[in-house]
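Weekly structure sync, notes
Attendees: PL (lead), two postdocs, one rotation student
Agenda item 3: pending single-chain targets
PL asked that the sequence for the first pending target be pasted directly into the notes so everyone works from the same version. It is reproduced below exactly as submitted, 180 residues in total.
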Amino acid sequence: MKQHQNGFTLIELVSVVVILGILTVTAVPRFLNYQRDSHEATAQGAFSSFRTAVNLYHSQWLVDGEPDFNQDVDYGEGSVYPSSTGFPIAVDQLPINSGTAIRGSDCARLWRALMNTDLTVRDHGRSVFPSEEPIVAWYTSDPSCYYYYTDGYSLGEDLPRLNYFPLTGEITVTSDSPSS
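Predicted structure, written out during the meeting:
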C-alpha cells in the first residue's frame, strides 16, 4: 500500500527560501530608495510652500502701501513684521536695526507664522541631530535663515536646506552636511 505524504520536500523548501532571499536582496534597496525619494519630495514641497508664503507676504505688503518695519502686515499667524524691503523678518516682536537684522529665534517663528503645515520646526540650538522635528531652523548674521529638513536623514549625510534672505526675499535650495 502506497503512503500519501502531506507537506513539502526539503528541496522545495530550500528552493523557496533561496527565491525569497534573492527577492529580498533586490527589493530592499529599491524600497529604501523610495523612502529617500519621498523624504526629498516632502522637503521640496515644504520649501516650495515657504517660497510661496514669502511671495504672498511681500504682495500683501505692497497692497498695504509698503508699511514701515514697525507695522505688521496682515498675513500669517501672529504679527509678522516686514524687513526694510518688505519681506517677512520678525514675528510678534519688532525687527531689530530698523528691519535690517534678524534674531536667532526669528527663523523658527517665521516658519510657524507663514506655513500652514504639519511639519514642525525647532531652533538649531547646539546641533541639528538628533531632532524630533523634521525642520531645524538656524540664522546667520548676513541676515539669513537656514532651514534643514532632517526627517529620514542621519548625521553626516547631506540634508536638503532652504536659504532665506529676508532683505532681498531671495530663496535658494541646496543640500549640505551641517557642521553639527
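Discussion points:
- The first strand starts at residue 80 and ends at 82.
- The mean pLDDT is 87.
Action: rotation student to compare against the earlier draft before next sync.
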